[in-house]
Amino acid sequence: MNLKPKVRPLWQRLIIVPALSFLMAWKFLRLPYGFFPRSIRSIIQHWTYDMFLVIIRTGVTKAPVDQTCELKHPASYRPLVDVNPKFRLDESDIKSFYDNGFVGPFDAYSLDEVKKLREIAIAAQHTVSQTYGWNTPRDRHFETPEMVDMMRKPEVTERLAQLLGPDLLVWRSQYFYKMAGAERIQWHQASTFMVEDYLDPAIFPADRSELFQITAWVAIDEATTENGCLEFACGTHDKIRNIRFGGEEGFYESRFTLEFDEQNARVAQVPAKPGQVVLFTERCIHGSPPNSTNTDRLAFNFRVIPANIAVYTDKKYYRSVYNGGKYHLDNWGVLPIRGEDKYQLSRTWNPPAATSSPTRSNLPKAA
Length: 367
Description:
Layout: H1 10-28, H2 38-46, H3 49-57, E1 62-64, H4 91-100, E2 102-107, H5 111-124, H6 145-151, H7 154-164, E3 168-178, E4 185-188, E5 203-204, E6 214-219, E7 230-233, E8 242-251, E9 254-258, E10 267-270, E11 276-280, E12 286-288, E13 297-306, E14 310-311, E15 317-320, E16 325-328, E17 335-338
Antiparallel strand pairs: 1-8, 2-11, 3-13, 3-17, 4-12, 5-14, 6-11, 6-13, 7-10, 7-12, 8-9, 15-16
């Protein structure tokens, strides 16, 4: 089943609406669904009733962009762990994160570190991923000890721990090549489906209303308003929005328009110097303006979860509608960057060539 966001002809919509109504009723009645094809089983299992209702009521012209949820604030904005004072976030920092959806930038890496990573990132553009067997900017940390070292630096992990807790895993990373003259990345929002596979989530929090993932975005080159720094619609992580299929802009190969009041939004552009990091929740609507300069702008990010979150459960591959197709998971695993993977909910990757180690002596072996 092709669920890539797109405008569909009337005849298809006339078929899809009653079909989805049938599946929603099947889900409501809690009838067995193991005999259905995989795509149908995934819809029944993972779509919320709100997702069904929006698509049905709009005649397949709109849909929630992800599994529906709202973000609740914690009872206290005190840090979840005690850390070295030079990395400490005070309560106003944490409240700002929950109010706005991001915090930073912070100084994290030396110019020598980002210079070396830039060389690696440029080379990776022209090489096949050893993890997935084809050229992709995604998850290159599996073959890059320098990236592993950078993801484990306390300048980042200690700040993340104050927001997510003591035991942290990286489940995904990606280089971002914003070339000279590149167009803007339109407003987008993600949670568990990650704007990739609209049948199966990638991550499985017990409660989607809690903060369960943070993205650490690292400037390799200086990010400015002219070359396409991050921008956020502050506070829009409060709930998952709907998308309208079609539109003038495209999120990579998917074309949709995210529905929110951009004219009245509090938009923050966040320039960053090389080696600085911005922490944000993917549920905050974000994007980047075009690169109007004649030089490229490089960055990388890594997505961090607490150890009690499962990733890619019982899956041999994962699909991305905008980032290249199927990612076979034989060589994939979560990477502990702080504390320990005490729950062992996902396959764990033990980097054989990393030059640094997390805050315990031995990583668990890959399952």
